Amino acid sequence: MHFAIAAMLQLLCCVHAYRSGQERYWIFIILCFPVLGCVVYFLMVMLPETGTNRHSRSLLVRLLDKFNPDRYLRKLTEELAIAETNQNHYALANELARLGRYHEAIPHYREALSGIFTHEAPMMLSLAKAEFATQEFAVCQQTLEDLIHFNPDFQSADGHLLFARALAAQEKYDAAEKEFEVLVEYFPGPEARIHYADMLANANRIREANDQYVTVINVAKRSRPQYRKFHRQWIQTANEKLKQSTVR
């Protein structure tokens, strides 16, 4: 009986792998490890296709990255080799950035930003994020300024926050503070306020920084459980920074 169930699972997984165009090694794994192979295939290939909730997807993606980080990279690299288009460069750059390989992503972003896509706002924003991640803060600032110059109607809270952080990273505190003061009034969630507080702390304005951390905590206390769960990382950061502070 158990053998029949295992054989049926193997058959289902092999058929799915074949029809969905998965790498051939999956069929080898499924056949060589009847139960474990099917479980791994389900977790790494079939489950992501079911559209689970955001938190579950995030956990699953981290798990998949640990076991098979290059699962999409190979396919995207092959697609770029077949057709060197702006979109293929952009897709490969995004996957490299997702894996934290920002230095490799940047050339592909710049290749994507050519022709009719030279000033494509989402692409420019993605490039700026990669430049910030590689600590090219002045270059990041310039990319964002160019983005707004060529796309004056483009709006992005994440882009605005990135611009403020790029200024702060260059110790342009006065200019950064003006941006942060606007950001904390409309940015969804506490992330912008945390970065504002970090900037104040770096500028040795510890009491003002602590006030911002306290605001994050107080807003969280008054908010619904869903808010606290969704922004748990930033709320925890605020609590930790206050505990570490020597100024009250």
UniProtKB/TrEMBL annotation:
InterPro entries listed in its UniProt record: TPR-like_helical_dom_sf, TPR_2, UCP030959_TPR_rpt-cont
According to the record, the segments passing through the membrane are 27-47
Provide the alphabetized UniProt keywords. Membrane, Repeat, TPR repeat, Transmembrane, Transmembrane helix
Tell me if Metal-binding is a UniProt keyword of this record: no
By its UniProt entry, which Pfam families does this protein fall under? TPR_16, TPR_2
Superkingdom, taxonomy of origin: Bacteria
Name of the molecule in the record: Tetratricopeptide repeat protein
Q: Which organism is it from?
A: Citrobacter freundii
